[in-house]
Amino acid sequence: MGMRGRLGELCHRSGMLRMLQRVRQWGRHDLRILAYHRVLTLAERSHFDFDLDLVSASAEGFREQMLLLKRHFRPISLTAVATAAVAGQPLPPDAVVVTFDDGYDDNYRVAYPILRELGIPATFFVSTGYIDSGLPYDYDWLVHMILRAPAERVAIPELSLELAPGAGRDARRRLAGEALSRIKMLDGEAQTALMKRLERDWGMPRGGGHPDCRPMSWKQLREMHAAGFEIGSHGVHHRMLAKLSQQELEFELCESKAVLERQLGVPATTISYPVGGDSAFDDRVVDAAITAGYQVGCSYICGTNALAQLQRHALYRLPVERMMGLGWFDAMLTLPEWLSYPTSRTSTEAARTECSP
Ligand SMILES: [Zn+2]
Fold first, then answer.
1. How far is the CA of 235 from the centre of ligand 1 (A)?
2. DSSP structural state of residue 352
3. How many other β-carbons are positioned within 10 Å of the β-carbon of residue 295?
4. Global pTM?
């Protein structure tokens, strides 16, 4: 759990968080945006062959978090934030937005019924090229291949990585984590080429899909949208936008927007930049997102957003992580500058080292 987690639990148990929340409110007027990926109760961690770091909470944990959010904070939609920002209107104190990245089918199966029951708005950012495909996401498949490939084949010279002889599952997990960090340093084309090579050379094509890593369908997304939830863009192919040519960048932004609008019948105005750290989006990406017609853009950099200077196309978020107990979650929401889960600015959606203000 680490120092922050223990401190968070301690603050929660002290019973002082509500008082501290009021004190903080006098001096700070900011917007908190929670970032989730997957909501999933893992029956057996050792049988889960995908990226564990993307499991943000169990079903029970998520429900408790949402109940706490409803009790002590003000859940609002991202569209409400955008509307208020454009109109120059204030947001309510303690406003919190709930967001999900990628488009895993557990968002529909597990998170959506809980949110609907509790009446909490949320935005689901999806990579449109994966929807209806049944195919696991690139980075997840990389983890899967490293965990499952025959040991003698696991060498990735492009990332200067190789499995040590006799390495067990934990060592494979560590190698997979390192591979995720390193692949994100490659340019977009090299990332795609590496994935194709590994699938071919290791004999692990992802075409058959996998029940533990499935994207949602358009039917599910239309149902969620009809129930009042927002569906935003997370690009088409989940590519790191800052690493793309201008033409590819515009395709990812415009095509995902057009597909969402065609499928859902309403303007798509929100985006979260895939991977979301400094190496995944920059001023060029933000300018292109504005030109494409997005009103709001979310990063994956840890922090809250000062309402006085809301950077609505480069919003900070607060990642929620699987090992975060309810006490830490409460403390993180209440005192995010001290108790949030730090993300690395340079890669993301996984690697963590520092927390931006
Ligand atoms: Zn993502």
1. 9
2. -
3. 20
4. 0.92
